[in-house]
Amino acid sequence: MKKALLIVDVQNDFCPGGALGVEDGDKVVPVINSIIDKFDVVISSQDWHPEDSVHFEKWPPHCIANSNGADFHPDLKSEKIDLKLHKGTANKDDGYSAFEATNVSLPDYLRKNKITNLYVCGLTTDYCVKASALDSLNEGFHTYVITDAIKPVNINPGDDKKALNEMYQAGCILIESGEI
Q: Which long-range contacts link 89-93 to residues 24+ away (Cβ below 8 Å)?
């Protein structure tokens, strides 16, 4: 069984000081860096929005394609990433899930590389991590969510706990980085 790490949206705009900064969002970086070498394949997703995205009716403008805000956090070991996915690239596309990437079909890539186990981490627990993990399950992959390598937006208090419960109830395995 081969395993892959999916790093969801660890981008400047989702870290403190960014356009849609998540509290302690940068704290996932050292955890991810500490486990990145334990995987056969490392994949990342990046929000990659056009300037006129309807997504910005719900959220402040963030992760505009080719902007500094869309870049990976500078401390992330991005040189270890085998595949970089862009999502939310169309004007009318929210692109929460890495499985909605427009530049590569993630399910096809995982199957071609004989990946059976997908470990999900990154930002944010209650949106893009959750959407990616649930889509992973729907595609038939054994899906693990690394709970000490994710952070929520928490628009409403407790959204992170609801998201974790939803992922668990759907069949995701919740683990910490030390259990890998």
A: 89/48, 89/49, 89/50, 89/65, 90/50, 90/53, 91/50, 91/52, 91/53, 91/54, 92/53, 92/54, 93/53, 93/55
81, 10 Cβ separation under 8 angstroms: no
Question: Per-residue pLDDT for 92 more than 90?
Answer: no
63 is catalytic: no
Told to judge if 128 belongs to the known catalytic residues of this protein, a careful annotator would answer yes
Given 26, 47, 87, 135, which residue is catalytic? 87
Catalytic residue, candidates 9, 26, 135, 160: 9
Known catalytic residue: 37? no
pTM over 0.85? The answer is yes
Average of pLDDT values for 156-168? Answer: 97
Q: Is residue 89 within 8 Å of 102, Cβ to Cβ?
A: yes
Pick the catalytic residue: 15, 63, 121, 128?
128
User: Residue 114 has what pLDDT?
Assistant: 97
Q: Report the pLDDT value the prediction gives residue 91, as an integer from 0 to 100.
A: 83
In order of their start, the domains of the chain are 2-179 (3.40.50.850)
Task: Please choose, from the candidates 121, 96, 128, the residue with its C-alpha nearest in 3D space to the C-alpha of residue 174.
Answer: 121
